[in-house]
Amino acid sequence: MTSHFRNLFVLCLSFAFSFVLHSQSGEHKISGIVTDVDGPKPQVNVTIKGTFYGVQTDSLGRYTVKASPKDIVVFSHVGMKTEEIIVEDVTRVLNIRMESSINKLEEVVVTKRKRKTQDYLKRNYFSDSSIVRSNMGYLSPAAVGYELRFADGKDLNKSARDILDAIAKQLPGVTVRDDINGRSLYGKSFGASRGTSRLAFDVDGRIYKESPVWLDISSVLRVAIIPPQQAIYGYGPVGGGGMVVINTKSAKFGLRDQDGRPFDLARVTNNIYENDALDNQRVQRNDPDYLKQLYKSERTEEALAIYKHYKSLYGGSYSFVLDVYTFILEKFKDPEAARKVLLENTLLFQEDPVALKALAYIYESHEKFNEAHEMYKRIYKMRPDYVQSYMNLANSYRDIGDFRQASFIYARYEHLKDIGFLLNDSTSFVPIIDREWNNLMMLKGKEVFALDDGKEHVWEEDFDGTRLVFEWNN
Q: DSSP letter at 219?
């Protein structure tokens, strides 16, 4: 949509609703135990995303950190999948089970695996903007056991005062301060309004204690920040406050061909589909026992008997209830029996926004848009500071044909985002919501603004292509 209409709409409609807001409690302690398949997991990094604050689990996998609502607690360890949990006001205990991120290979030699990993990162350097070349070698969030924050150079504000301001505005957890060394970049300490850890710089492999304010922002290819605990291992005392790794466009990093051009990954990757997708039979091998039994049922009565048999084991799981509901509805086309299964388990969904969202997705898949809309309204009241709540509610208004109300929700989201109220539970939601709103105005702009003046009104779409969105309830 045009910026004029958009700004006008936000101004006029941002206070059009009354909202139920949850009270926000302050900083509190969160404790728990981290385990893996072998039991308690020691030396797991437990950090608060966007800060340099963190601890490690002890020999029994135990930890305690301080966090506030809307903080994101990150659990990371080399060779394990990183877990991120959003803190809510009621969160006091987080017990995490970590899973391995490395497939077991036959006759693996550790030194060869490390060299292969570096070769892989080097080969993928130009296709993956999260890979940086540091003085310690190639690094990537997927290859290290800690939170490596990064930014693509093209996302840096070229109009910023200098490279320090450009980094501070793009990456969370850092701020610019004036000190005896001039302008410096500091890592924000948890719970503090001013940073206390002065960062050093690794620019194309050269180490600088002083800030490289002379660096042209437009020459930066990518940036990453290594936390102090890890930077000091690779850089010594100079990395004690953390390290900013900057790769410029002129550096000769990454794998290149004989002409010095970036290596073409298409020459080494098998991109041909060979009809090797899993069929339903192979997929169902991993299903729980109750689903395997349901597949064998021939009538609704048999399916309900199986449901009652397994309810003593899985009755506390909303996933179990939704599986049975979906199966009866899709295989036997019996909406009344399926609805009774839901009604018997109402308590599982009453106060659980994740369960309600799963139910809403299932309603949508069966084109029960009014039922899904009621779920999204309940979720919105329970999570008024989550970006996804606004996107789902606005889209559900659109699904039931209330385009004006959908635009009200988009406008409210825009206003609350501007004043910093909303939690970006995923930064990818921001451009998606913008495009959803633009698309709505393109298709239904006249109805939204009640324009009936006989004139043609055109809203421009800023996206050319096909967008495929994968979304999950938790």
A: G
